[in-house]
Amino acid sequence: MRRSQIFIQLILLATLVSLPVSYFLLPSLYAGTGSTRVIEVKMRQFGFIPERIYLRVGDKVVFKVTSLDVTHGFYIDGFNIKESVLPGETKEIGPIEFNQPGKFKLRCATPCGPLHPFMVADIVVEPDYPIYIFFGAVAVVAIATVAYILAKPPRGELLGVSLDREIDLLEVRGIGSLLKRFLRWRGYHFLVILPNLAVFMLIFVAGTIGNPMGAFNFSIAVVWILWFALVEFMILFGSRLWCGVCPIPALGEWIARRRLVGVHEPRKWLSLNKKWPKRLNNMWIPALSFLGISLIVPWLVTRPAVTVLLFLVLIILGVVLYLVSPPRNFCRSICPAGGYIGYHSLSSILAVRSKDPSVCDKCVVKSCVRGSPRSYGCPWKLYPGGNKWNIYCGLDFECLKSCPVNNMTLKLRMIGKDLAQRIRMKADEAWMGFIRFGLALFYEMVFFGPYAWIKDWGNMLNVYGANLLTLYLLTPTLEGFISWLKWAGIVSLTCLLLIPAVFLVFSWLAKIAAGARKESTKKVFLAFSYALSPYGLLIWIAFALTLLGINWAYPIRVFSDPLGLGWNLLGTADINWQPFMPTIWPYVQMSITLFGLALAINITYSIAMNLFKDHGKAIRATAVMSIFHVGAALFFAMVLMG
Fold first, then answer.
1. What is the pLDDT of residue 486?
2. Cβ(105)–Cβ(81) under 8 Å?
């Protein structure tokens, strides 16, 4: 019997045993009294009082709801209830009978200000048996994965899938030749960048003169709900494909080349051609700038003016740096989005690779780097023939255009293949991983959690929306700025110190458990950190899915009314906000997280084997590091259903 079959059977058996017990036994043991309760709920920008409400199965509740400031809406996930409450009004809603245990979100259903989409409270109906299922599933997946590795070393495999199994997309019958022709066409980039550039222009217009309320403005509803979710999926299935079609560096590129489509000799470029400093060829600036952006994220994802200013700064930097030091040094070493996309692209299933590296080694002209009459060569200054990592491959496909022997291709393979086969140890990339991993857990707790006080801190106690014309409304008070300093301190310390410190302790313990005391702790720490690449990416995908599932109506509406001025161009501006199957998203999120947990454990083992060269040492180190990964999954489960 194959190891993959044993692994799957262990998961299924544990699930089949635990689910019926949890589902049928717990509710019957802790049945509610059926009594009717009256609960007072106060709503204010942007939270509920109380933040959490505890009930028992069978309770009937009448909610006495009061709005303390503006008009709010009252909506409970899974119940056909949506009521508006006017300022100063107290309205009785119910009775509502809660017959299902678990956690339900109480949401504001009427736009009430910039942080309206994140105005939520928790209703916990006890016994909260879904949390026991989630905790049990985490334990089962972790134990089954370690047992799968322990039974027989999975050399050349991840979760039972051979790492040698690949699909050459350019050789697939029917579509391969068409895809190759399209990617080698010189007009490819202009064709895909042009519509993205048009969208960016609309973002600038909407953010400048459009509705200051983010939910009704194209620059917020499309960028931070639709685009954000699509990019997270694009990383998994398309590596750095967004970097290849991003319009931010395109203006500088077109100006420097003095061409929109055709090839122009680099020596005739309109550029200073300054040499890029080697000390900047890393991910420190993208990692720290991504963290810096996260410090203002409550404003960034809710105020059109802030989004426009950010994009304006990025475009100016992209153009200036291309004209000073081409080609894509901005994308490689400056852009915060490019940094995290590149880091997680290590786990992508898509990769540009040489068909036969030995053919590339024999090639003298190296036109994939230097360029040719058909190509500029790699704008990222990689040698594609020897490249084994996705992290700095921007998928511009110049190597496909320039290769004289047709030795470059596009492959689909197992997620995390590169990480499982070789070691990578760079502190800048490790900290990008810690920042992304920490923010994924933090954002889930803050934006979908009931904790209004921490949202207030990040929001600087400001209740105003703003476009560029009303930017002055965002001027913070002293109290608001002090509150923001608390938020910034919590976020920074968590991502830069707390998570890395905990990970360092586990790495040291893993080294001790492996009996490799002479091995450098720093080396083990940095190597093991790359298991967070697929794990963190999948948690971000889970977060993005929920964000899109709950708030899907906002981007659909703004396509008809991008400026929020009452237009209805496509007939979708009147769509009412209604979450799509809101009660199912925690289960979807947890399923994705469990897959990430299994991958993280298996990749940790592969890294340990590359480090220690011994199965026994690797399995002991993996068992210790699994405690960290399990702890993260348990925290995520607690946030979702606890």
1. 95
2. no
